[in-house]
Specification:
There is one protein chain. The protein is of the alpha+beta class and 83 residues long. It has one domain (10-81): SH3 type barrels. Helix content is 22%, strand content 41%. The protein is built from 2 helices and 7 strands; from the N terminus they run αβββββββα. It has a 4-stranded antiparallel beta sheet with strand order 2-1-6-7. Strands 3-4-5 form a 3-stranded antiparallel beta sheet, covered by helices on one side. Strand 3 and strand 4 form a beta hairpin. The longest helix has 13 residues, at 10-22. The mean pLDDT is 94.
């Protein structure tokens, strides 16, 4: 069963948008459906919402729910949520 979506901090969303605009390859740590940390490298092709859940699509087709991101290029999501 999938956890309910938890919106991410707006400042972290800005980090994702800046990474997407720069079109550079990023190192993304995220949690898979089993709660294990996975690492991907890729360019962010799109940030979008569907059914009140936000997602990131990479140029290789991988899709990651934004609240499942652990970090992108060393910027940790949890560091922004504590502000």
């Amino acid at each position: 069963m999938t956890r309910p979506y938890v919106p991410i901090d707006c400042e972290f969303h800005d980090v994702l948008e800046a990474t997407a605009v720069r079109r550079r390859v990023a190192v993304i740590h995220h949690l898979d459906d089993d709660g294990r940390t996975r690492v991907l490298e890729g360019r962010i092709a799109d940030l979008y919402a569907a059914g009140a859940v936000e997602y990131m699509r990479l140029d290789d087709g991988n899709v990651i729910r934004l609240d499942r991101i652990v970090s992108i290029d060393g910027e940790r999501l949890d560091a922004y949520q504590r502000r």
